[in-house]
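Anyone else keep sequences and structure tokens together like this?

Example one:
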Amino acid sequence: EVTTVRVQDPRVQNEGSWNSYVDYKIFLHTNSKAFTAKTSCVRRRYREFVWLKRQLQRNAGLVPVPELPGKSTFFVGSTDEFIEKRRQGLQQFLEKVVQNVVLLSDSRLHLFLQSQLSVPEIEACVQGQGPQTVTEAILHYAMSNCGWAQEEESRP
């Protein structure tokens, strides 16, 4: 079984405003039975990765969860070097996570990687309080072709 996960295409959102942030495209391609959709493409920001790591730690028991790249205490201008370093760190984090059987069993991880649900929507879905099951949410996103539209746009 092969799972390829790529973190790419960092984009500054709300540039020039006090609430600007960078989000990253996460492209997943797999033949693993663990995943509902075999390919997906979503955008996530750093604080969503922080949330995911916290949830994985809470649910993994004694299994160590990989580290995230550090948070910049002062975000001076948006240095390309800092963004690229963070992108690489986020990719290494996800590569290690998807190789770990225990972490792979967490449905929050699947919704994070394979749906565009927000963090509160992921929580509601996992707790059975959302309009869809975890599988339905992933399939709904996969069928909407959102992921493919994003992936196709970036091809040269």
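And example two:
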Amino acid sequence: PVLRLLEAQLQDQRRKYEEEMEALRNELDAMQEELHKQQQASLQSLHLSPEVLVELRLQQEITRLTNENLDLKELLEKLEKNEKKLKKQLKIYMKKVQDFEASQTTLPADRRPHESSMQVAVQRKEKDFQGMLEYHKEDEPLLIRNLIT
């Protein structure tokens, strides 16, 4: 239950981050489009030869694509850094959950907190699961105990 809550929080953070990044991309696209329109207007006012206009437009497009590429690289680095941070947090939370579950197995049955008081309400998404269950060897006793109960 705790792990599911943490996963839900992690997914919520990721969704918010992706929405924010999409909004920033849209804003960047709008600004680039406005800049392109302004450049077109200034070029038309110069009344340059067609060859020079083509060359200038190509140079502008190369500049725009280079800037876009740099922005995307920066965004990628930021996303990778955030992903590493979130993975590290998830590992920490998973370790805490394992430690907590291990401490629960060492307590006598009459000293354990009531199971229903520890459950956390988490919305479930219906999923179709297929295949085998993957687990670490050290989690086997805990897995067996949970399957039996």
